[in-house]
């Protein structure tokens, strides 16, 4: 099986490519694979942008980038672990109408908003009313787009964790005080917290888990696909073998089903 790495995050993808080479994988390393010109028979996917993963989702064997990773899929199972449990879900058009009411309810002109889906339709973050309106003007959301709204709070640090069936493969810090701050320093409590979070039906075997730290306490921010998540300071050699193992299982199962 050949493996695809889209070369879109220069230093990071080179590091992933070097790890894949060291593991003896047959890698196609290119900018924006062409789904129309290229043949993707017996291909897997190691790392790409969400845009390319969307294009290739029915052409290659890979860990599903966003199915079963919607907020509504895990909020009920992980409610007590979530950073913000005061959320409400509604169509974006309804949120636009209720925006000022929620500003009054939350005591702030800013509201945390994210799409329910995991395909980065727009970036989750804090928005005031005018900023939220721009998402409509930019055609990033439709009135029926399901969104999550919650009070906006300050976060001390954010961590990217890569998990394999509930076990931590590797992690690193990627934000501090809402600014990009990539570093690695072993913290036993990150591992303990990440591995205490239960699995839920449909959760992919390998996934990216974002954890935040607020006043010394840890919470879940969101879960995403390991195939399209930034590795930051994480070691690809600790992550790629699990992705390869699970993708090969998917391939073998799909192959067996055909005959």
Describe the overall structure:
The chain is of the alpha+beta class. It has 3 domains: 2-63 and 242-258; 71-79 and 155-234, D-amino Acid Aminotransferase, Chain A, domain 1 (2-Layer Sandwich), CATH 3.30.470; 84-151, Dna Ligase, domain 1 (2-Layer Sandwich). It contains 7 helices and 12 strands. The protein has helices at 10-22, 50-56, 71-74, 92-106, 129-137, 188-196, 236-258, and strands at residues 2-6, 26-30, 43-47, 88-91, 111-115, 125-127, 146-151, 157-164, 167-176, 179-183, 206-214, 217-225. Strands 10-9-8-11-12 form a 5-stranded antiparallel sheet. Strands 4-7-5-6 form a 4-stranded antiparallel sheet. The longest helix has 23 residues, at 236-258. It is globular and about 55 Å long. The mean pLDDT is 92.
Assign an overall shape: globular
Indicate the structural class: alpha+beta
How are strands sequenced across the largest beta sheet?
A: 10-9-8-11-12
What is the average of the pLDDT values? 92
As for the number of domains, it is 3
Helicity, as a percent range: 25-40%
- CATH H-level superfamily of the largest domain: ATP-grasp fold, B domain
Looking at the overall shape, the CATH architecture of the largest domain is 2-Layer Sandwich
Following the backbone from N to C, one meets helices and strands in this order, namely EHEEHHEHEEHEEEEHEEH
CATH topology of the largest domain: D-amino Acid Aminotransferase, Chain A, domain 1
The total of beta strands comes to 12
Report the CATH C-level class of the largest domain: Alpha Beta
Helix count? 7
| Unreliable segments of 5+ consecutive residues | none
